[in-house]
UniProtKB/TrEMBL annotation:
Name of the molecule in the record: RNA helicase
The organism's taxonomic lineage, starting at the top: Eukaryota, Viridiplantae, Streptophyta, Embryophyta, Tracheophyta
Biased composition (Polar residues): 24-33
Domain of life from the UniProt record: Eukaryota
Disordered: annotated span: 1-49, 474-496
Single GO MF annotation: hydrolase activity
Motif Q motif positions after renumbering to this chain: 59-87
Similarity comment text for this entry: Belongs to the DEAD box helicase family. DDX49/DBP8 subfamily.
Record localization: Nucleus, Nucleolus
GO cellular component: cytosol; nucleolus
Catalytic EC class: hydrolase
Length: 496
């Protein structure tokens, strides 16, 4: 069951998700047909046989059916050979089929859909040719960068339409009919519903992409998807890409039309072999102290940059202030900051200006930053799926990486669940017990300064306002009274 997480904050409201009882179809208006025991889709499951490897090694972008300019662009971008997900999905997309691609994070899924879309766009350019829906704002900007790079010789017009930015400018940009629109579900819904000029903009759209499809298909985005589907022509191609399989995706696949192609390189919730997974087990009051300790070892361990995941915006900002006080340069990325602050935090981190990014789960999916050598789970995520996405920010594209989880007594069950799902046991991180009272005092002082700064900067007020707004939204939806006490407490732990 999906609980509200910081990612839901993308939408500006909190959704209490419940397990989906009725299956979803690609078009929510149509009722699911009866389940046929024989699958209606063509499925390819990747294997690691030597034959498959040999076939893969002789494949080129040109041999997949892409035009010369596209193959040339890949070369210029250092993509010498297609990855397996690209090899299998690109020809199917070019031939007009719906595709569900399931492959590990960092395996080249973006180019697997962007290249064939751009290839088709170049044959018949118009706007809006493709609509790409992704769960977080930062991912939308990253996707736009990749589309622009891959379509650099096309004069591509690409618009990013996400929450936290000026709606009038976004409306104007959509009315000018860019070739590709990349959006988060909440913002596009609001725009489509409030401006009658906008739905016609998508009346000839050829491609709908759901990136991080498992997340976009979560029950929290149901209304948004319905609005989007209603504006798109039925003849479009639908492309779903995800790193994790969920029952929603499985059901959708079983109900898809017989032209759908399913590429699966997914063997459950897996982490890559090049990732070292370690833990430290400490008292909860010592978390900040040991966090500072791990970070102080970055240089010795030749760690270029680190992402620290926490479960609330409040912890994120507080730790950022604390590290600042300890003279550890960092940036904070969470949904209580404005979009311009969020983007500036990410760009400072990506460009190497700061070596540490503190983030809520808004940054746990898809972000591709090659210098990230370390992921720290300061708070343990409630679901193994989130753990896999978080640690997937390092050890990408065959590189090595380290994930350290800071475990306290109350996290033990969560860790067991994660280890069971991932099929690996974490090792103990090599650390010394901190007995130096100077070090302890320094961190304690920084903690106090950070708390005061939270009050002085009005951050605590922002947290309170957010909670009030959420309660109101839930009350408006008649959902408030249904929440148990424990549910409420759990939400407050992760949702601010
Ligand atoms: P993605 O899984 O789409 O986030 O891609 C992960 C990283 O792999 C990105 O930095 C891509 O630029 C890179 N990439 C994608 N396709 C290829 C390829 N065929 N060869 C080398 N790198 C690639």
């Amino acid at each position: 069951m999906e609980e509200p997480t910081s990612e839901n904050e993308e939408r500006g409201i909190t959704i209490i998700a419940k397990p989906r009882k009725t299956p979803k179809t690609l078009n929510p208006q149509t009722q699911p047909q009866k389940l046929d025991p024989t699958p209606q889709f063509e499925k390819f499951k990747s294997s690691s046989s030597s034959e498959a490897a040999a076939a893969q090694s002789t494949t080129t972008f040109g041999s997949l059916g892409l035009s010369e300019w596209a193959a040339e662009t890949c070369k210029e971008l250092g993509m010498r050979q297609p990855t397996p997900v690209q090899t299998h999905c690109i020809p199917k997309i070019l031939s007009g089929r719906d595709v569900l691609g399931l492959a590990q994070t960092g395996s080249g899924k973006t180019a697997a859909f962007a290249l064939p879309i751009l290839n088709r766009l170049a044959e018949d350019p118009y706007g809006v040719f493709a609509l790409v829906v992704t769960p977080t704002r930062e991912l939308a900007f990253q996707l736009a960068e990749q589309f622009k790079a891959l379509g650099s010789c096309l004069n591509l017009r690409c618009s990013v339409v996400v929450g936290g930015m000026d709606m009038l400018t976004q409306t104007r940009s959509l009315v000018s009919r860019p070739h590709v629109v990349i959006t988060t579900p909440g913002r596009i819904k609001v725009l489509l519903e409030n401006n009658p000029d906008l739905p016609p903009v998508f009346s000839r759209t050829k491609f709908l992409v759901l990136d991080e499809a498992d997340r976009v298909l979560d029950v929290g985005f149901q209304d948004e998807l319905r609005t989007i589907f209603n504006c798109l022509p039925k003849t479009r191609q639908t492309l779903l890409f995800s790193a994790t399989m969920t029952s929603n995706l499985q059901t959708l696949l079983e109900h898809s039309s017989n032209k759908a192609y399913f590429y699966e390189a997914y063997e459950g919730l897996k982490t890559v072999d090049t990732l070292k997974q370690q833990y430290i087990f400490i008292d909860k009051d010592a978390k900040e102290l040991y966090l500072a300790h791990i970070l102080s070892q970055m240089e010795d361990k030749e760690i270029r940059s680190a992402m620290i995941f926490v479960s609330t915006c409040r912890t994120c900002q507080r730790l950022s202030f604390m590290l600042e006080e300890l003279e550890v340069e960092n940036a904070a990325l969470h949904s209580l900051n404005s979009q311009s602050l969020r983007l500036s935090a990410l760009s400072k981190f990506k460009s190497g200006k700061v070596p540490i990014l503190l983030a809520t789960d808004v940054a746990s999916r898809g972000l591709d930053i090659p210098t990230v050598d370390l992921v720290i789970n300061y708070d343990i995520p409630r679901y193994p799926r989130d753990y896999v996405h978080r640690v997937g920010r390092t050890a990408r594209a065959g590189r090595g990486g380290l994930a350290v989880s800071i475990i306290t007594e109350t996290d033990v069950n969560l860790i067991h669940e994660i280890e069971a799902e991932v099929g690996k046991q974490m090792e103990l991180y090599n650390y010394r017990e901190i007995t130096d009272s100077l070090e302890v005092t320094k961190v304690s002082k920084a903690k106090r300064v950070a708390m005061m700064k939270m009050l002085d900067d009005g951050f605590e007020d922002k947290v309170k306002d957010r909670r009030k707004l959420k309660r109101k939204t839930l009350a408006d939806k008649g959902m408030l009274k249904k929440r148990s006490k424990s549910r409420k407490a759990a939400e407050e732990k992760t949702d601010d």
